[in-house]
Amino acid sequence: MTMMDGETGAYVFQGANLILPDNVDNSRAFNSLSRSLVFDAFGGPETWPSAGYAEIPRVDRNGVMTALMLDREGKLPKGWRSAPIRQTLAAAAGGMVTVDSPEGLLFRAYHIMQWRRESVYCGSCGGLNGDAPNELARVCPVCGRQEFPRISPAVIVLITNDRDETLLAHNANFADGIYSLIAGFVETGESLESTINREIQEEVRIQVNRIQYEASQPWPFPNSLMLGFSARHVSGEPKPDGKEILDARWFSRDKLPALPGNGSVARSLINRWLGVR
Fold this sequence. Notes:
Blueprint: E1 9-14, E2 17-21, E3 33-34, H1 35-42, E4 53-57, E5 64-70, E6 80-84, H2 85-92, H3 102-118, E7 130-131, E8 138-139, E9 146-147, E10 152-160, E11 166-171, E12 182-185, H4 192-204, E13 207-219, E14 224-235, E15 245-251, H5 265-274
Parallel strand pairs: 1-5, 10-14
Antiparallel strand pairs: 1-2, 1-3, 2-6, 4-5, 7-8, 8-9, 10-12, 11-15, 13-14
């Protein structure tokens, strides 16, 4: 059962999982649920601690989203199931996630609910945080410190060579056989271009130029903003670092390995190179 006109959309999370009624399949997993359906199953706002319940404004401020974050070990009501968010994304998403798409709205809700769980206490004095009255922030009633949702910028880059091949790498954290693009978090004091050059040099030991911005996407795993770029290979042969990157090779369009699922900026950049929209 999905949200009806005039109702506030609702989401239920547990750890990195989305909680769904049994009759909602993964292709519809990112559509919000009826608020009344969620409250009937899990209880209303008065039954939830502040960190586990929120009414989250949309980015365009055109309404709010209701979100619950269950305890990791909590048992689900009969008729409900748990589905990993990242796995359901491949089934539910088409192209890259946008701010007003069903996936984008859910990503915002999930990101903020994780942050609320991590910001129960003030980072300065240890006081119990509350909610700021007029903005999306946590505020300490003891020392007055405010905390806003954390956003960690990360770059991801599609590298091509003069044979019109692209460099794909297998990360130690990937499932067997999956290859994707070189990516990494921006460090303090770095520009985005510096991060790209550093990550490429650290992970595969090649040099690039013609770095160009392509697209960006929120990625709440745990709190990233992914900034997508393209670049051109200049010199060097790929040499995986053997720690984070276990294999890296040039691939042509007609001989590709298993790729990241739909909905990720990595897949979107690869699809652009392939001419797939």
